[in-house]
């Protein structure tokens, strides 16, 4: 899965957003590429998606040319654009015996992503990566991928880190003796949240990643400029 890039052209998943109003009615989904050098990460050179902002302005966006599997401090990072792809990469990590079930998800994000799609996979279906891939790309969206993972058992519980209080709370009482997935959305570093100290955010992200068994990171195209998102990613994971 994710062996070749493709377009989603039907009004499903994230492509359903404002579908009837948009001229560009397809969504670019990159292929997964394993890299050992962050300099190999790049953006696509065409519009990947368009949608309207809250003021009715059409926003045309580019995003990652590829999804990336990266080794960092003997851990695996999966870097991708829209956050629901995290769902697939959790199950891929389980397939590769990096994690198993009943993990603690530490979700660092401007948004909760806790909407409920009211449709889930069975435990048997989640063992089939093709079914997980289809569910990720044609059913879920950026708002609703955590609850299914929890219902299905790969996520036992979650910690939401979305503001300064959550950051300090985490540092005062970090989780211990847990199997952790770090799930970072780089929109937590978008300019409207610059009132939260950058170094504080970076410190918590790094601490969480060092405790985690697997790390999923999204560049969140609609919520942060993609060049800025990559600048933050490079700064955090450069060592």
What does this entry look like structurally?
26% of the residues lie in helices and 23% in strands. The chain contains 6 helices and 11 strands. The strands form 3 sheets. Strands 3-6-7-11-10-8-9 form a 7-stranded mixed β-sheet, with helices on both faces.
Sum this structure up briefly:
With 239 residues, this protein is of the alpha/beta class. Helices cover 26% and strands 23% of the residues. Strands 3-6-7-11-10-8-9 form a 7-stranded mixed β-sheet, with helices on both faces. A two-stranded antiparallel ribbon has the order 1-2. A two-stranded antiparallel sheet has the order 4-5.
Helix content: 25-40%
**What portion of the residues fall into strands of 2 or more residues?**
15-25%
Multimeric status of the protein: single chain
* Number of β-strand runs: 11
Strand order within the widest beta sheet: 3-6-7-11-10-8-9
Query: Largest sheet at a glance?
Result: 7 strands, mixed
SSE order, one letter for each helix or strand:
EEEEEEEHEHHEHEHEH
If you compute it from the alpha carbons, what radius of gyration comes out, rounded to the nearest whole angstrom?
A: 17 Å
Give short descriptive properties of this protein:
single chain; seven-stranded mixed β-sheet; about 25% helix; about 240 residues
Describe the secondary-structure layout.
Elements: E1 6-8, E2 27-29, E3 32-35, E4 49-52, E5 58-61, E6 67-72, E7 75-80, H1 85-95, E8 103-108, H2 129-138, H3 146-152, E9 155-161, H4 164-172, E10 180-185, H5 198-211, E11 214-218, H6 226-237
Parallel strand pairs: 3-6, 7-11, 8-9, 8-10, 10-11
Antiparallel strand pairs: 1-2, 4-5, 6-7
Helix pairs in contact: 1-2
């Amino acid at each position: 899965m994710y062996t070749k890039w493709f377009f989603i052209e039907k009004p499903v998943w994230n492509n359903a957003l404002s579908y009837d109003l948009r001229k560009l009615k397809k969504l670019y989904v990159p292929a997964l590429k394993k890299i050992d050098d962050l300099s190999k990460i790049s953006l696509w050179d065409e519009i990947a998606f368009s949608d309207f902002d809250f003021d009715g302005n059409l926003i045309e966006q580019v995003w990652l040319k590829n999804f990336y599997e990266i080794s960092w401090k003997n851990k695996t990072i999966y870097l991708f654009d829209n956050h629901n792809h995290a769902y697939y990469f959790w199950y891929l990590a389980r397939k590769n015996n990096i994690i198993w079930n009943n993990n603690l998800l530490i979700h660092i994000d401007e948004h909760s992503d806790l909407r409920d799609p009211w449709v889930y996979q069975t435990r048997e279906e989640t063992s089939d990566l093709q079914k997980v891939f289809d569910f990720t790309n044609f059913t879920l969206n950026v708002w609703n991928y955590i609850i299914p993972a929890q219902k299905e058992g790969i996520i036992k519980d979650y910690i939401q880190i979305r503001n300064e209080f959550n950051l300090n709370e985490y540092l005062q009482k970090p989780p211990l003796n847990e199997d952790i997935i770090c799930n970072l959305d780089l929109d937590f570093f978008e300019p409207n949240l610059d009132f939260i100290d950058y170094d504080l955010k970076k410190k918590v992200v790094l601490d969480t990643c060092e405790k985690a068994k697997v790390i999923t990171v999204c560049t969140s195209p609609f919520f942060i400029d993609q060049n800025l998102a990559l600048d933050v990613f490079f700064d955090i994971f450069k060592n």
